[in-house]
Design a protein that fits this description.
- The chain has 128 residues and is an alpha/beta fold.
- It has 2 domains: 61 residues, 2,3-Dihydroxybiphenyl 1,2-Dioxygenase, domain 1, CATH 3.10.180; 53 residues, 2,3-Dihydroxybiphenyl 1,2-Dioxygenase, domain 1 (Roll).
- Helices cover 16% and strands 38% of the residues.
- The chain has 2 helices and 8 strands, in the order βαββββαβββ.
- The strands form 2 sheets. A 4-stranded mixed beta sheet has the order 1-4-3-2, covered by helices on one side.
- Strand 6 and strand 7 form a beta hairpin.
- The two termini are 29 Å apart.
């Protein structure tokens, strides 16, 4: 087996417009394609970061909430590389987003922190 790369991450949201604004207006993803699937009463939004397709954002009516934060089985969190931790954290704070204290990875000595999307999906910033 020769996997090449991660193609995309699928996220199900509860408030499509709020999540769309969060990922595009706040985090800076660009829209590749937006489709309303009438048979599912669902939107599918394909998003890119720096020209790379990365996230499929779905809305489904009455999707159940996440079981716990973040230790439920399955995807634990989604991490984004950043060059300047303070700058990105300051931008999130200016947008009213709560961010955990910056920590140091004991194995790599790199700095990281967590924040959440509108549905509480844990997102990580990892300084490169």
């Amino acid at each position: 087996m020769h996997l090449q790369a991660v193609h995309h991450i699928a996220i199900i949201c509860s408030d499509y417009e709020a999540s769309k604004a969060f990922y595009t207006d706040l985090l800076g993803f660009t829209i590749i394609r937006e489709v309303y699937r009438e048979d599912r009463d669902s939107y599918k939004l394909d998003l890119a970061l720096n020209g790379t397709y990365l996230i499929e954002l779905f809305s489904f009516p009455e999707a159940p909430e996440r079981a716990s934060y973040p230790e439920a089985r399955g995807l634990r969190h989604l991490a984004f590389e950043v060059e300047n931790m303070e700058e990105v954290v300051a931008e999130l704070h200016q947008s009213g987003i709560q961010v955990e204290d910056i920590r140091i990875d004991p194995y790599t000595s790199k700095r990281f922190t967590f924040f959440s999307d509108p549905d509480g999906l844990p997102l990580e910033l990892y300084e490169i």
